[in-house]
Amino acid sequence: MGRKPCCSKEGLKKGSWTKKEDLLLTEYIKDFGEGTGWRSLPKKAGLLRCGKSCRLRWVNYLKPGLNRGTFTPEEDDLIVRLYTLLGSRWSLIAGRMSGRTDNDIKNYWNTSLLKKLKAQGNEPRKHKSQAKKRRRKKEKLNVSSQINRKNNDENKTRRKKEKIVEKHNIEDEVAANIEEQPHTQNSAQAVSDNNHNFTSSSSNQDGTSSATSTSEIHSSSQNIEDQNQDQIFEKLQVIDELLLNDNFLFPPEKYIEFNNNENHMLFEEIYEEYFQLVYENSCHF
DNA sequence: AACATTGACAACCGCGTATTA
DNA sequence: GTAATACGCGGTTGTCAATGT
Questions:
Q1: Is the pLDDT of residue A74 over 60?
Q2: pLDDT winner (highest mean) among A46-60, A207-221, A234-248, A256-270
Q3: Quick one: which of A18, A124, A129, A224 is 20 to 30 A from A82 by CA?
Q4: Where is the HTH myb-type domain (predicted)?
């Protein structure tokens, strides 16, 4: 049952990579490609490293096409905006920045950019830690019995289905509104001018936030005050999936309305900001 | 010159999810 | 369907050079 046993870590080298190791890894990948499995790569390439370490070294340092130069002001701006929208989803952010790795951006953010922003008084609102979210999720699971776990799995399947339905709803609604709604001028600039107004102005006093899709907005006037920030991120993830779907073309006029109990803010602005960023800088289109 | 501090970045660790037998 | 394993991600730590005292 299961895969063959994992190799022991005993005897494997740790710490900084030598030029010789870099060469061995580069040569191996040049000859056999990346898709041969990181687990078995070190042995085949003659390296005393674990596959994980090899992958990291390749992805963050040796891979051709990496931009290891200093970050430009334009890149700074892009990182700040994407962080505001996506939080510390570094891989997502890196995916929209040509030649930059998630590790690079994360390091730059933690060591330089954040300090720079703090000094300017523009510190973005801190997003929920992804790791903490995971831990909370795990704690819940630990409390659960086997039956609850099973229920969790069932719920997971159900949520997956719901997400697909929601995704389709957003596509339909957004498409239906292309011709109905005029394109908001300079909304991206407005968002930019307000700095992180997506996360700040949309937050309630108790720290909660609310969001909704166009289908919800147009179909009812239900109160969404109790929807929390996680749901906003889920919406953004849906948008993200849509954006990354080659078969789905996203005209800039499409919008999703955003709402909360304090003020009314069009999700369109957020989306448009996001869309503009992706258009200007993405390697995915 | 010696030591302390800071900054930058490489690398590791733990975890969740996907994949596989 | 289940458990073991592989992979990828985010958070954190370690290391080393530059700078300050």
A1: yes
A2: A46-60
A3: A224
A4: 9-62, 63-117
Question: What pLDDT is recorded for position A122?
Answer: 75
- Cα separation of A53 and A64, whole Å? 18
**For chain A, what percent of residues have pLDDT higher than 70?**
40
* d(CA A111, C1' B3) / Å: 24
Listed ranges A139-153, A184-198, A249-263; the one with the highest mean pLDDT: A139-153
3-state class (DSSP) for residue A258: strand
Bridge partners of A264, per DSSP, are A259
Nucleotide nearest A50 (Cα, C1'): B12
Average pLDDT over residues A139-145: 45
Bases of strand B lying below 7 A from some protein CB: 7-17, 19-21
**pLDDT at residue number A195:** 34
Strand C, nucleotides < 7 Å from a protein CB: these are 1-12, 15-16
Q: Which residue is nearest to nucleotide B17 (CA to C1')?
A: A134
> For residues A97, A101, A106 and A107, what is the CA-based torsion angle, rounded to 10 degrees?
-120
A22 close to A63: Cβ distance less than 8 angstroms? no
* Burial grade of A124 (CB within 10 A; 0-12, 13-18, 19 or more): buried
For residues A227 and A212, the answer to whether their CB atoms sit within 8 Å is: yes
Beta carbon of A121 within 7 Å of strand B?
no
Q: Which two tokens stand for residue A114?
A: 């954040």
Report the distance separating Cα A74 and Cα A166, nearest Å.
34
Q: What is the C-alpha R_g of chain A?
A: 22
Q: Which class for A2: exposed (0-12), middle (13-18), buried (19 or more C-beta within 10 A)?
A: exposed
